[in-house]
Amino acid sequence: MLVVWMMSTTSIAATRIEVDRLSDNLALGQYVDTVRLERDDSGLTDYVRNADFVAGEYEALNFGYTQQRVWLKFELSNASDHDIERILNIRYPLIDRLYLYNDSTTTPLYTLGRFYANEFDQALHIPASYFVMPLVIKAHSTETYYLSVDSDNSIALPIYLTTTPALERQAFQYAVNIVFYFGLVVTNILFAFFMTLLLRDREQLYYSLFMVSYHFLFFAVLEGMPHTLFGIDSLFISRDIIPYILSISMTIFTVFAASYLKLRKYAPKAYKMAKALTGIMLLSLVLCFILPSYYAIKLTTLTSILVGVFYASVVSNFILRGRPGVRSFLLAWGTGVAGAIVYGMKVWNLVPVNFITSYGWHIGTLIEAAVFSSMMAYRAARDRKERLEFLHQLNKKERDLRHTQERLLESESAAKADLELQVKQRTRDLSNILAQLETENRSLAELSINDGLTKVRNRRYFNDIFPQMWSDAIADQTPISVILLDIDHFKKVNDDYGHISGDDCLVKVAGIMRQSVNHPIDVVCRYGGEEFVIILPDTTQQQAFALAENMRKNIANTIISNNERAFRVTSSFGVGGLIPTEEIAPEDLIAQCDAALYTSKRNGRNRVTVADDIATSGKAEAADFTKL
């Protein structure tokens, strides 16, 4: 029924539009004549006027991918005694060039499109990705207009004639819908990255990157957000980047799906095909640098369809074989693919433009993101349950061993002399086992509070020890200071020298921090990623500043080398200290240090900023920590 509804149409011949009798909003698709002509720079000529125009068939016109120029012709009549203003608007951002002519002139009334900087919605300040063209129809007159459109993307023309209030209401509704969509997407992305940091899981990282590239970046460009929100008029950002993002996101998804479905273990042949498919996607990404935008978009669309077909066949095979957990994957991926198919049918001019064909992809990806997030959360809960069961079994074994020891000790006192040596031998064996268990338990406890890479304490240990040290400082009325450190441009280190060099950099910086602290009770922790934190009990803010400045110089002067190249890094510091009271929470000091760290980065990095400086300038509370 849905397909029948999408394909349904009522053919109405193009006719003169009497604007004095119109409602607030009129879809012009069935009131215009259309023709496709070769692209040229001649503008409106008699050749265009005499072309074989045909009547539009749908309320929202769709011409799919075409290298021709689409011309629209329509007449506006005003039989009233006063001039009437109406807003001609096209609610589709992916148009390269758009020209509106009056039949009486050869000079365009409006020149819009992605090819023209700052010419997107020049006529009105509408907070949506619309092309807006105000028209004034004189009293007792009839005007004929020609609209010329071309684009390397598919051409959809949901064209309307509205009043200004009606357009603003529709633009507001569009903004609400987009904010709702991207709000849900960002929520899922933040959840995915939180799970990645919590579990340190590679699949979670793949999924997070897929969400960022596909659900966020791809749809942001598709909806014209770079210009609408940030005023970016770059043709590359608004159009040419689409096939790059699509190729990257499909490559990431291919790797993620292969890992999640465990193709290497359960379907070796499919795993080899997935690797080949990854190579194809990377090749399509390379070809995007070579091919014109029109062909690059077509190529990435076809390769994306290939990814969908491949994983549909793999999942179907797994379902037939009874693999558990695959149906939820099919539900998530299938809704996204279904939405993309509907959108693709619109792009290829197989179905008309309407709400379902225009936003089915958005709806499908929202369902896909929700189901995938639920799947990853379920798997995390399952892994946690397995770890708890393992610990329970370990504790049970330890209890059993202790009970065995007790029984043997009781037997020892009652045993005969000739069994004493045997009892002692068994006791020694059990003691060795218990000693090994105790050693292993200590090792496990040490591992749980230490960062595996840098060997300093981890974030979990910091969260436990800092409130205790804060309480001690309150009881003793002694100062306590905190230093927050962030390695500058750490992502560039990974990009330029590789992740192994990045790990070496983290280890070097952690070593400098351990060597720099003055007291055994000082605590150095890895706060997350390239961030570190130092707790300095019984240390004033001035002493902490001197220590941070010394560390900054040591880090900046340290050469980090791998087998081929050597480099240096710098770091930014935020320092805070005080004598705490019951009215001050430990989180307040961390927040001040975080604000000071942000100020160090904002003021050029490679510097130490004291929290008092932030408070004095009145900028602590206004700091935007998301840009650190």
TrEMBL record:
Keyword annotations of the record: Membrane, Transmembrane, Transmembrane helix
EC number: 2.7.7.65
Pfam family, one: 7TMR-DISM_7TM
Domain GGDEF: 478-613
GO molecular function annotation: diguanylate cyclase activity
UniProt cross-references to PROSITE patterns, sorted A to Z: GGDEF
Transmembrane parts of this sequence: 178-198, 205-222, 242-261, 273-295, 301-320, 329-347, 359-378
Named cofactor requirement(s): Mg(2+)
Reactions that this protein is recorded to catalyse: 2 GTP = 3',3'-c-di-GMP + 2 diphosphate
InterPro entries attached to this UniProt entry: 7TMR_DISM_rcpt_extracell_dom1, 7TMR_DISM_rcpt_extracell_dom2, Diguanylate_Cyclase, GGDEF_dom, Nucleotide_cyclase, Rev_trsase/Diguanyl_cyclase
Any one Gene Ontology cellular component term annotated for this protein: plasma membrane
Cross-referenced SUPFAM superfamilies: Nucleotide cyclase (SSF55073)
GO BP: cell adhesion involved in single-species biofilm formation; negative regulation of bacterial-type flagellum-dependent cell motility
Protein known as: diguanylate cyclase
